[in-house]
Specification:
Elements (H helix, E strand, L loop, with lengths): L9 E7 L2 E6 L3 E4 L13 E4 L10 E3 L4 E5 L2 E5 L5 E2 L5 H4 L11 E5 L4 E6 L9 E6 L6 H6 L4 E2 L6 E2 L6 E5 L13
Antiparallel strand pairs: 1-2, 2-3, 3-4, 5-6, 6-7, 7-8, 9-10, 10-11, 11-14, 12-13
């Protein structure tokens, strides 16, 4: 059992650097094999009491990190405290229909260096938009979290994007699910 009396359901699980993580609706917990006991007797530790996901598909694995879609934003987690990376699109993120939040999904395309998040916007009950975070040129979760996003110049109004920055793009694509599939 994972913090069974907190009123939250376990929504997802993943393994990162030998630790097993459980993602609940508003928290993250971890455990690992102690080499002696059965899994039911392993020690479970709370990692975060603020970040979780409402969806069984709300966590996507990257390169030694995961992306987690929470009500307050998209977070990257690499073993420490989750870091928010969606502040640039917060007004759009706030339009997600959280009554249908259980339908959202997260996928990380490590080859194209993109995080894709399928979300139901406004009154939609299934994902009707894909929010894409392009992180080309950034190699670690720390770089993705710390590098600035694109912005517009105050003097010319032109969009300024360094090669090493987060770049968000909302795709108007309805997709109830997504998968990264290798084809021959």
């Amino acid at each position: 059992s994972v913090s069974e009396n907190d009123g939250q359901a376990v929504r997802s699980a993943f393994i990162l650097r030998g630790q097993l993580y459980f993602v609940k609706e508003h928290s993250i917990h971890s455990t690992q094999d102690d080499g002696v006991n059965e899994p039911a007797d392993w020690t479970v530790t709370e990692v975060s009491r603020t970040v979780g996901t409402p969806s069984v598909d709300g966590v996507g694995a990257g390169e030694d990190w995961v992306a987690i879609a929470h009500r307050s934003g998209l977070y990257l987690f690499s073993g420490g405290e989750p870091v928010k990376v969606s502040q640039e699109i917060q007004p759009l993120w706030d339009q997600i229909n959280w009554a249908a939040g259980h339908t959202l999904w997260v996928r990380v395309d490590t080859r194209s260096k993109r995080i894709l998040v399928g979300v139901p916007i406004a009154s939609a009950t299934q994902p009707n938009r894909i929010l894409v975070l392009d992180y080309r040129g950034l190699h670690t979760a720390g770089e993705i979290a710390s590098m600035a996003s694109i912005h517009s110049s105050a003097s010319s109004g032109r969009i300024v994007a360094g090669g090493r920055s987060r770049k968000w793009a909302p795709w108007l694509i309805t997709a109830n699910s997504a998968a990264l599939v290798e084809r021959p």
